[in-house]
User: What shape does this take?
Amino acid sequence: MQKIIKEFPILDQYIYANTAAYGILYDGLLDWRQEHDLDYLIGGSNFKMKSLKLISDTRETIGRFFNCKTDNIALIQNFSIGLNLLLEGLDRKHKVLLLNDDYPSLNWPFESRGFDCKYIDITEHVEENILVAIEKEKITVLALSVVQWLNGIKIDLSFLKKLKELYPDLLIIADGTQYCGTESFDFEDSAIDILGASGYKWLLAGSGNGFMLFKERVKPHFNLKAIGYNSANAVLENKNSFRFTKHLEPGHLDTLAFGSLKKSIDFLTTIGMQKISAINKDLSHFAFTEFSKLNLLEDKVVKRNEHSTIFTIMGNQKLFDHLIQNDVICSQRGNGIRLSFHFYNTTKNISKVVDIIKKLR
Assistant: This one.
């Protein structure tokens, strides 16, 4: 892993504990992006037209990485745009279950369109509370983030499978922006019907790219209206005969942005998602143990059996400034300080963070 870690120059100066805010650039992606733009510089439209195959290659790469049919993949600039386009075609009669304090770009699009929304709090019993609410409120759509942005609580994916068995008609829409790239994930084998994500966090792909994955069964639920020349692959005769996901691709797709997504997925694949999953699991367990010893975590986090690599610790402005001054890059979220770790971090990084915190106590 040391050779891989050297791909990230920022790690020579800082402990980067902020992937939940933004993934970091690595040498291989920088080289690819520079070569892409150099080819554009000297080739102009000739290069751009030839490089359009990169878009279909990106779709195929996503399909292999997450096990999803390419026809059921929409390439989107970010999760927020994708969800807003999608919900324009969903019947307002649906009863939607949301989580309080979930990511605003997940909850707000439902709320702004007047859906009948019900809410539960994110507690240590969040899965059980979801089940109770669905039974009580006759919920038809469950929309939630796989990993919560404020405290890192991760929804039990095996619970979603059991939920789907009980309620096969329930539509499950998930935001995977804080999840995709952290561990191996098989979309077809999951209970999630629609998974969307932006690529700039754990997938390390930079801005302007993302995707939505769809199960075949969900398409009749939507009457999508968004359309553009790119929906028809720039063929006039295709105006009324393009696939479902192309409604979410009405305009041109940037080869630099989506090529970066392909490059980064290839990078993660080369490292091996099983290896990344194992590293992140070890980092999560180690951080959970160390932060728990210092009583820095919320009770609802401590009481859960499994957690992500995102931790919001109790801490004020003074502690945040102290961490920043000691070259720990992190974020203030809610009433605490969010620290998030990815495969390029180490347990030594976490131990150093713990030592820095102790010095202020």
In short: The mean pLDDT is 97.
